[in-house]
C-alpha cells in the first residue's frame, strides 16, 4: 500500500481534497493517507502556517496531495506555498490544460502544458522599502534554475510525445534576467533536436493564446509569467475549477490545483473538485497506478460531457457531493 501525505488546506481545500480521496478509493486504489496541517489550521494548532511536521511528512512520503493553503495576511508570514516549494526544492510546476467536451469555453480541443519555474524570479522574496518613498522587489533569474526548468520541459515533451516547446520571456526589455532565461532555454534546445523550439515575448503570447491557443504545445516560463499565464490558460478551458498541477522536485512531488482557497464559496459544499481529482490522477500516474488514473479521467469526462451532474461554475446546480458521487458511480 502507498503512503501519501494529505494536506486538506484552507477554504474549499477540505471539501475538494475529500472528493479527490473518494475518487481514488472508487478507482480501487488503497492509500494510507498521512494528514498534515498547513495554512490557517496549522497556525491555530502549531503557531505557524508551515509546521516542520508537515514538511517532514512530505519529505518522508515523497508525494503529497494538497488543497489550497492561505497565507495569513499582515502577520509577517512569508507565503506558505513558496515556503513549501523552497523547503522541498519543488523546482518545476507542471500544469496540463485540456478542454473538456461539453464545457462552454472560448475554444474546443485546447491541449497545452504550462511548465512554470517554481523557485526564483520575483518570488525569491527579496523586497524592501526605500525609506517611505519607494519599494523595491528584486527579480532573480539564475542559469542553474533556468537550465533545470528548460530541460524539465524538453524531457517532459519527449516522454509525453509533445512536439513543441515555447520559451516565454520579456528579453527585449529585461535583457539580462529574461535574456539569461531565453539563452539558457536556447542552449538546452540544442540537446533536443526532435522537439521543435521557439520563443515568444510574454505580451504577444497572451494575445496569441486568446486568439489561437492551438499554435502552442508546451510552454516554459519563469515563475511570475507562469503564474499569470496559468490562470489565463485555465480561462481558455472553462475556469479554475478544472486545471490540476504538480510541483515536482528531485525528492518528490506535491499535487495541487491551480486555483486558490476560494473563500467566497468555502464551506458551502458547491466547489468544483475536478482540479483536485485530476491532481489525484496525476498522483496515481506517479505511483505507477496508470490504469486507475485513466479511469478517474474518463469518469470525470463522462460526467461532465453527459451533464450527469455539474457544479455551479460549470453552469449546473449540483453540489460538490452530488458531482463526486456521480463520478464515483461512473468509475465502477
Ligand atoms: P487565494 O487567495 O487562496 O488564491 P482567491 O480569492 O484568489 O484565493 P481563487 O481560489 O484563486 O480565490 O478563486 C478565484 C475565483 O474562482 C473565486 O471566485 C472562486 O470562487 C472561483 N473558484 C476557484 N476555484 C474554484 C473551484 N474549485 N470551484 C468553483 N469555483 C472556484
Ligand atoms: Mg487566487
UniProtKB/TrEMBL annotation:
Instruction: Tell me the Pfam families matching this sequence.
Output: Iso_dh
Q: Name one GO biological process term.
A: tricarboxylic acid cycle
State the PROSITE patterns in the record.
IDH_IMDH (PS00470)
Q: Which InterPro entries match?
A: IsoCit/isopropylmalate_DH_CS, IsoPropMal-DH-like_dom
Which residue ranges does the record assign to the Isopropylmalate dehydrogenase-like domain?
3-327
Q: What UniProt keywords apply to this chain's record, in alphabetical order?
A: Oxidoreductase
Give GO terms: molecular function aspect only: isocitrate dehydrogenase (NAD+) activity; magnesium ion binding; NAD binding
Q: PANTHER family, from UniProt? A: DECARBOXYLATING DEHYDROGENASES-ISOCITRATE, ISOPROPYLMALATE, TARTRATE, ISOCITRATE DEHYDROGENASE [NAD] SUBUNIT ALPHA, MITOCHONDRIAL
Family, per entry: Belongs to the isocitrate and isopropylmalate dehydrogenases family.
The name of this protein is NAD-dependent isocitrate dehydrogenase
Amino acid at each position: 500500500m502507498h503512503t501519501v501525505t494529505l494536506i486538506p488546506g484552507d477554504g474549499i481545500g477540505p471539501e475538494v481534497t475529500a472528493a479527490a480521496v473518494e475518487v481514488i478509493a472508487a478507482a480501487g486504489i488503497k492509500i494510507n493517507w498521512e494528514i498534515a496541517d498547513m495554512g490557517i489550521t496549522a497556525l491555530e494548532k502549531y503557531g505557524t502556517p508551515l509546521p516542520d511536521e508537515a514538511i517532514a511528512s512530505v519529505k518522508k512520503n515523497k508525494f503529497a496531495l494538497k488543497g489550497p493553503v492561505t497565507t495569513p495576511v499582515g502577520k509577517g508570514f512569508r507565503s506558505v506555498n513558496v515556503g513549501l516549494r523552497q523547503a522541498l526544492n519543488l523546482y518545476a510546476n507542471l500544469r496540463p490544460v485540456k478542454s473538456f467536451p461539453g464545457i462552454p469555453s472560448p475554444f474546443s480541443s485546447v491541449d497545452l502544458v504550462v511548465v512554470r519555474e517554481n523557485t526564483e524570479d520575483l518570488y525569491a522574496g527579496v523586497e524592501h522599502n526605500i525609506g517611505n518613498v519607494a519599494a523595491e522587489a528584486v527579480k532573480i533569474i539564475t542559469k542553474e534554475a533556468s537550465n533545470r526548468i528548460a530541460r524539465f520541459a524538453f524531457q517532459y515533451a519527449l516522454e509525453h510525445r509533445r512536439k513543441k516547446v515555447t520559451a516565454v520571456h520579456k528579453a527585449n526589455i529585461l535583457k539580462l534576467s529574461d535574456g539569461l532565461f531565453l539563452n539558457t532555454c536556447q542552449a538546452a534546445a540544442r540537446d533536443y533536436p526532435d522537439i521543435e523550439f521557439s520563443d515568444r515575448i510574454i505580451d504577444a503570447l497572451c494575445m496569441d493564446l486568446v486568439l489561437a491557443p492551438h499554435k502552442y504545445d508546451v510552454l516554459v516560463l519563469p515563475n511570475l509569467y507562469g503564474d499569470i499565464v496559468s490562470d489565463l490558460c485555465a480561462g481558455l478551458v472553462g475556469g479554475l475549477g478544472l486545471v490540476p498541477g504538480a510541483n515536482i522536485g528531485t525528492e518528490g512531488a506535491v499535487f495541487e490545483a491551480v486555483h486558490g482557497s476560494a473563500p467566497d464559496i468555502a464551506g458551502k459544499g458547491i466547489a468544483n473538485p475536478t482540479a483536485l481529482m485530476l491532481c489525484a490522477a496525476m498522483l496515481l500516474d506517479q505511483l505507477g497506478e496508470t490504469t486507475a488514473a485513466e479511469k478517474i479521467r474518463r469518469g470525470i469526462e463522462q460526467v461532465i460531457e453527459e451533464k450527469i451532474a455539474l457544479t455551479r461554475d460549470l453552469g449546473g446546480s449540483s453540489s460538490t457531493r452530488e458531482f463526486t458521487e456521480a463520478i464515483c458511480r461512473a468509475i465502477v
